[in-house]
Design brief:
about 110 residues; c-terminal domain of poly(a) binding protein; mainly alpha
């Protein structure tokens, strides 16, 4: 009995991967084995960096809050400690936005803590 291979499915699988790596540089876009490796590695980076993105944004928010707090004569740690003591529950994302785009509102929060 002759060997049976499902060439239609194999070709479809390869086309799907090659379509997803379209736009990459060099052989990564058109050579099957290189493209497959590039696609898998890209998936690993995407998975890893979805976690890293959250970390980076939190660090950015903390820097912005710290800058806003220091303009009003307070350090970040003291500011966050006083927020916690007064039971003011505003997350860092909103605080960073206030410090950056609405300094008067941020100053009102700092004045509330004093």
């Amino acid at each position: 009995m002759p060997r049976s291979v499902n060439a239609v499915a194999s070709r479809a699988k390869r086309k799907k991967i090659l379509k997803r790596v379209k736009g990459q540089f060099g052989r990564r876009k058109n050579v099957w084995t290189v493209a497959k490796n590039a696609y898998e590695k890209g998936g690993q980076y995407a998975y890893r960096d979805r976690k890293t993105k959250k970390r980076n944004f939190r660090a950015l928010w903390i820097q912005r809050i710290n800058a806003g707090a220091r303009l009003n004569g307070m350090s970040y740690s003291v500011f966050m400690g006083k927020l916690h003591d007064k039971n003011i529950t505003i997350n860092r994302k909103v605080l960073a936005d206030l410090a950056m785009n609405h300094p008067d509102a941020f100053k009102a929060i700092v004045d509330e803590l004093n």
